[in-house]
């Protein structure tokens, strides 16, 4: 199959990577499409099935693992699984799209290992852990326990940032957006 390119955006939860990914997708000249992941977590109130995630029961997720349906998956938080479906990536490549992955650090690095010559990995760095905590609290999507889990994971993820091809600091959204659009446009024509 004629494979498109892979644009991996990884960052701690709350770093603004989903917003940045949405901005990239609006740039029609880039021919990008979003890889919708599967997850065993419950949907948030604004999230839609098949658009934000494919929401699976923990059992259905395990079945897909056994059937080798994922090109990568991770237990991102204890007992909560996320994974990239092979069928989703192949569908988007068939449409002639380059695929954006909004996935965790380990998953992002695994995509690079799988498709080394056609992948760019970009780490979106929040200005500080403190700023990240503030953003997550403002977002009001997390319980106290989930907030703690996300912050503890964020600390570990930030230590892996140097393994990425590029680090984009998301201090102001506008600047991060400009830098990201440039990196991705250059990569796509390369
Ligand atoms: P959230 O629950 O905030 O939507 O996502 C939590 C974390 O899971 C984020 O870091 C997100 O990027 C990551 N994630 C989402 N989809 C995938 C996936 O398919 N694979 C992996 N490894 N991580 C994912």
Ordered list of secondary-structure elements with their pairings:
Layout: E1 6-10, H1 17-26, E2 32-34, E3 37-39, E4 53-55, H2 58-66, E5 70-77, E6 80-85, H3 86-94, E7 98-102, H4 105-114, E8 119-125, H5 129-139, H6 144-158, E9 166-169, H7 173-189
Parallel strand pairs: 1-7, 1-8, 2-7, 3-4, 8-9
Antiparallel strand pairs: 3-6, 5-6
Bound molecules: guanosine-5'-monophosphate (5GP).
Annotation keywords:
single chain, 190 residues, alpha/beta, Rossmann fold, five-stranded parallel sheet, four-stranded mixed sheet, 7 helices, 9 strands, binds guanosine-5'-monophosphate
Notes on the structure:
The protein has 190 residues and is α/β, with parallel strands linked by helices. The chain has seven helices and nine strands. The protein has one domain: P-loop containing nucleotide triphosphate hydrolases (Rossmann fold, 3-Layer(aba) Sandwich), CATH 3.40.50. It has helices at 17-26, 58-66, 86-94, 105-114, 129-139, 144-158, 173-189; strands at 6-10, 32-34, 37-39, 53-55, 70-77, 80-85, 98-102, 119-125, 166-169. The protein has a five-stranded parallel beta sheet, with helices on both faces. It has a four-stranded mixed beta sheet with strand order 4-3-6-5, with helices on both faces. Strand 5 (70-77) and strand 6 form a beta hairpin. 35% of the residues are buried. The structure holds guanosine-5'-monophosphate. The site of guanosine-5'-monophosphate (5GP) has 13 residues, from strand 5 and strand 6.
